[in-house]
Amino acid sequence: MIPFRARPPWLGGTLQTLRALRTLTAAALPEGHRLWLPLGDGDALAAMLHAPEAAAHRPLAVLVHGLTGTEDDPYLREAAQGLLRRGFPVLRLNLRGSAFSQPRSTSHYHLGRSEDLAAALRALPPAMVRHGVIVAGWSLGGALSLLLLDRHLAEPGMPALLGVAAICPPLEPALAHAGIDANWLLGRALLAMYRREVLAVPAKDLPEELRHAARAARSLTEFEAEVTAPRFGYPSYAVFCELNRPASALPRLRRPALLLMAADDPLVPVDSLAGVDWRACPAVLKLVVRGGGHCGFYDRHRESLSVRALGAFCEGLAQGASGESALAAASEGAAAPSTTQAATSSDAA
Question: Which H or E run includes 84?
Fold first, then answer.
């Protein structure tokens, strides 16, 4: 397990999580270009493209938010800033039905809707992806990234997918939903935001009986069982979870996958790692950090531990390193930041 010294005042998993999701000082990014990436049914995903200051022959980094998130979530902006600093072009992607994509959405994302990510990548201009693509996702976006690599790698029209990174993904959906429901503060807030987001979309596939069920749901588990599963054709909640279980995809991955988890995650239990036979997952590097909360990882350095690990992973892939070498670089980046990135907590807050 990787040691972790939290950056004051973000002590403990809950405060780390709150810092990752909400902050008064968003990471500064250069001006971006709004893109709309068409899906096969007439909907489209909003995305923001940023180019690094100096042109470099580097892969495009596609960043995917989590449940109720957007391109402007703090953890995602901070990752974009770190990757731009390292010379990577960055695309911040908004899932179907989320706030920025809502104007051109008539449906909604869910844990297993990886085909939307695949369609978005296929819609990118060839010049933009000529050096390949690396996808990084947080929480639900991490689950989608792993399923993308498992399900869509060899599909016609897909750009070269060099690897994926998943930060705090719900590897076992039912465990994650139960963990969220058990957290009185964060669980209630997430359910309220999710309900509001789903009902705000002028959806073609959400009849009134499902809208009523969405308004009545008292937990995320109930919401997914009574709304999401029947809405998207799953016969039960159990089937929905099993068919979209990222843990089952890990042994099938054939490109490097960075998996970053926190032992004190208050939403996605680290116990979800226990049922995986890691000897059967040679493409996956599992990094478990002693602290960091859910998608936080704010330690006592200018860049968070997750940004350092992701940056090192992307640099390894960009340099043509083997999957094993790229994953080793991510581990070293998480554990040993360069001296130029060290900062006091007041500098980095």
Answer: helix 74-85
Q: How does pLDDT run across 115-153, given as a tens digit for each residue?
A: 999 999 999 999 999 999 999 999 999 999 999 999 999
Burial of 262 (0-12, 13-18, 19+ CB in 10 A): buried
pLDDT tens digits, residue range 2-29? 999 999 999 999 999 999 998 878 899 9
Instruction: Read off the pLDDT of residues 173-210 as tens digits, 9 standing for 90 and up.
Output: 999 999 999 999 999 999 999 999 999 999 989 999 99
The DSSP letter of residue 228 is I
232: CB partners within 8 A, 6+ apart? 110, 113, 205, 240
Cβ atoms within 10 A of the Cβ of 132, count? 15
Token pair for 2:
């990787």
d(CA 328, CA 179): 30
Alpha-carbon distances of 252 from 255, 278, 282, rounded to whole Å: 9, 12, 9
CA dihedral (192, 197, 199, 204) positive or negative: negative
